[in-house]
Amino acid sequence: MSTDSAVSVSTATQVASSLPEVLQALGAFLNYPELRSCVLVCHQWNEVFTPWLWRIVEDYTLAWPRIIDQISPNFYSRYAVNNTVPSTKKDERWLRGMFVKHGRDVKGLHISSTPFLANASAAGTFTRLNSLTIHAITTYRPSEEAKALMDLPILAFKRNDDILLWDEQQAVISTCVLSPAFDNVLKPYAAMQLDAFPPCLMGSQRVCLLIMENPDLETVELGLETGVVAQFFSKEYVVGLLAALPRLKRFNNKCLQYDLQSMLEQLAGLQHYESHQHILNPLDFTLDNVALTRSFPGLRSLSLLGHGKVRAESVLNLLELLPGLEQLTLASLLPGLGNSSDSEEFIQDKKHGRLQGFHITYPVHNATRALDETISGLLPCMPFLTKISLRVLMPETAAVLAEQCKQLEGTGSCLPRAVHVV
Q: What is the average per-residue pLDDT within 127-152?
């Protein structure tokens, strides 16, 4: 969308939202039939336009960053005004009031600012979400609940940078359970400073509450910062909450360190799974926990990013046991096809009937001849590819693509449009 069109859409939205005020100003100059017609139009407009306007709420778009800066000054620093700290209670009440009023219309919710999470997780506010993305969970400023927790007798002589002991954490937890469902489930964190513990504890509960209160969720994305949730609840508990969502089709997992097969077994209806394990030095790490022992025909796309190098044998295993797979994305491949006779037989005798996209995001300096041989050795298993993404298109890979993958777009000597060199 161009800048001009974006501005015009924003302006049109503001004008449309002001229609009732315009009608009120003109009312004295209209006769009854005209006034009644205008009122009916406004009613219909509110019934149709308002739900459409609220169907997706992303806190980094439209005017939300400015609103959040009123509640959490300098959260979006480019919107802060003179670095002043305004009164926040009125703005926060307004935000919560809007969520309560329009929450039933919201189908998609994207949370990258903690004010949104704190207000969106109130019981009964959002209950009809189809899509939920959460990137931030900690408290944006010292909240009343956090201050109250820090005033507990057991913490009276603690400094903000002191590490809380196990029994101290347990005492705090027992005073701030947000739902009876969390009784005897929350557990102390291994090590956390006093000033960080209450916000992370409350934020973790809010994430779980949003998932629990939206049984129609089809898409869930949990960002890296939400990994603290698994420390307070355990990763098995979080996956159990997701498993209770009967319509869940897509899960973007940036926070849970979880075995691939166990995840697919728990989330039986999953069609799209993206996992980021955030290993410190992923290119020095070989991933061995992606091999499957049973088939999952329902999975359509699989993305393993931040996992380090995946063995070619594991790729063959995935192709064999994920017969419905259409898109496969890997961070990197370990060079070498191995000497397994099973691998050779699979390459020679079996073709994956549905894989259309194969994407590898390895760095340019890893584009070695051995990797070229590995990729070109796997391609005969993928005759129906329509797109491949590589950092460098190497000679053997290019030759095999031209010979084996006839579905790729593009003709002649030009680089096919479906070969994406990233």
A: 74
